[in-house]
Oxidoreductase
Amino acid sequence: MSGVAPLPTIPVRSDRMPPVEAVQATELFAERMAQRRSVRDFSPDPVPDAVIDAAIRAAASAPSGANVQPWRFVVVSSPERKRRLREAAEAEEREFYDRRATAEWLDAIAPIGTDWRKPFLETAPLVIVVFEVHQGPHSPKPYYVKESVGIAVGLLLAALHHAGLATLTHTPSPMRFLNEVCERPPEERPNLVIPVGYPADDARVPDLRRKPLAEVMLRC
Ligand SMILES: Cc1cc2nc3c(=O)[nH]c(=O)nc-3n(C[C@H](O)[C@H](O)[C@H](O)COP(=O)(O)O)c2cc1C
């Protein structure tokens, strides 16, 4: 039995809509989200700061285990820091592609056509580095950190896509160098690197297909 009192309550805001409207709204949203693609060639054109602020506000509205909100979003936009980020990521990635990756893993990513080079970390006008915040001197013990941060990142990608921006979810491996580049303490653990910007005029993406609904969804 906890000695901590529950919070006071407030009424739930309900946006219930007629079923026809709800279907239309969800179909439109699904169509819009289906147009999102991971982009690896960015234009250097700048992105309004206010869009990034609002997208991160959307991400930070995500549910989290015990409402601990165990996330930190570091927006890297200075050319010097992006250069350091790219250099460190490419060093890890070169090691990964040349030595650490298993043949099975290389086969799995081969259709995407990626290699150790990560120029997008410098060409994109900004890179959002997402950290999981674990227990530390100024942070409480979090619960379901990966699930919570994953949901927040989903909202972030959706918000940025909704604003007409392109993103890539990039996971250099290992990622510890990001603490040094972003000057974050050890209890913050890198989760994802997300270059953000507009696609380059000649950007292309692999012609991937999604699994059909019948394969990924069951009703019982
Ligand atoms: C957790 C996660 C890690 C990923 N890591 C990388 C990465 O390190 N480099 C990369 O080029 N793409 C990476 N991707 C992007 C996937 O390759 C991409 O999402 C997938 O091929 C589907 O393509 P789409 O995002 O264009 O629909 C990652 C995606 C996720 C969700």
In short: Strands lie at 71-76, 126-133, 166-167, 188-197. The two ends are 36 Å apart (CA to CA). The domain at 39-199 is CATH 3.40.109.10 (NADH Oxidase). Residues 79-100 form the longest helix (22 residues).
